[in-house]
């Protein structure tokens, strides 16, 4: 059985946080993944996690915090006892449009992460779909980003890989030695779940989870983070998705 975590961004529309953490604990979760909106008071956040028997081993941090105030990111990571700090995205206006730009961004990301690495944490990137939009012919931004440094880790979002038209298993194979976690998210059949942005509870969409699980386990990748970008009912998503993973 892999380690199963829950990206708290899924529940951003269902405050308060304490109720979410209690719900997750009741469903059997032991780990959660943080995001930038939660880090204003690290000590209070850690207290809430402890009260519910949860740990936060990975977290998403905006690039501005990593670049401008790395000490704050490190403080959060230290307070939570995280192992891995991840930058999840950059806004459209910051995204390069050619291979040289993405290569430069990969180097910028690696440079920004040096204080985090020096503090003893893993540091890397979390993909969406835009990193698979070809530039200058056949170059893919995700490859160019990761070429910025061998020290950059990857949290591979399997759902976004599929949305981008690629085979998630092929990308697991390609970067198995860099992958520190995967986002486990499912995609509804075409035309369904339009009120949930086309996402589905894990095991209730089009993704082949038994095959992906076998691939991941074969590569020694066993940190799974459940995510749904816009669930109407976050308890339903968490419960049904955990049930699916328990059957694998």
From TrEMBL:
SUPFAM superfamilies assigned: Xylose isomerase-like
InterPro entries: IolE/XylAMocC-like, Xyl_isomerase-like_sf, Xyl_isomerase-like_TIM-brl
The Xylose isomerase-like TIM barrel domain, residue ranges: 26-247
One Pfam short name: AP_endonuc_2
Record PANTHER family: HYDROXYPYRUVATE ISOMERASE, INOSOSE DEHYDRATASE
Protein name, per record: Xylose isomerase-like TIM barrel domain-containing protein
Species of origin: Oceanicola granulosus (strain ATCC BAA-861 / DSM 15982 / KCTC 12143 / HTCC2516)
């Amino acid at each position: 059985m892999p380690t199963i975590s829950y990206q708290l961004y899924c529940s951003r529309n269902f405050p308060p946080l304490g109720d979410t953490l209690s719900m997750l604990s009741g469903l059997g979760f032991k780990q959660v993944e943080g995001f930038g909106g939660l880090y204003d008071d690290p000590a209070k956040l850690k207290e809430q996690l402890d009260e519910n028997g949860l740990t936060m081993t990975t977290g998403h941090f905006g690039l501005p915090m990593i670049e401008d105030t790395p000490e704050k990111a490190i403080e959060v990571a230290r307070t939570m006892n995280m192992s891995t700090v991840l930058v999840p995205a950059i806004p459209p206006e910051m995204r390069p449009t050619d291979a040289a730009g993405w290569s430069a961004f990969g180097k910028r990301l690696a440079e920004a992460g040096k204080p985090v690495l020096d503090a003893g944490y893993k540091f890397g990137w979390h993909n969406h779909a835009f990193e698979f939009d070809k530039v200058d012919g056949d170059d893919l931004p995700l490859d160019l980003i990761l070429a910025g440094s061998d020290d950059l880790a990857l949290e591979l979002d399997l759902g976004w890989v599929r949305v981008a038209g690629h085979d998630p298993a092929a990308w697991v194979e390609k970067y198995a030695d860099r992958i520190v976690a995967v986002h486990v998210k499912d995609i509804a059949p075409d035309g369904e779940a339009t009120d949930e942005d086309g996402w589905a509870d894990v095991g209730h969409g089009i993704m082949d989870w038994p095959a992906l699980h076998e691939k991941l386990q074969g590569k020694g990748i066993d940190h799974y983070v459940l995510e749904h970008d816009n669930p109407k009912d976050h308890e339903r998503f968490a419960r049904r998705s955990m049930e699916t993973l328990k059957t694998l």
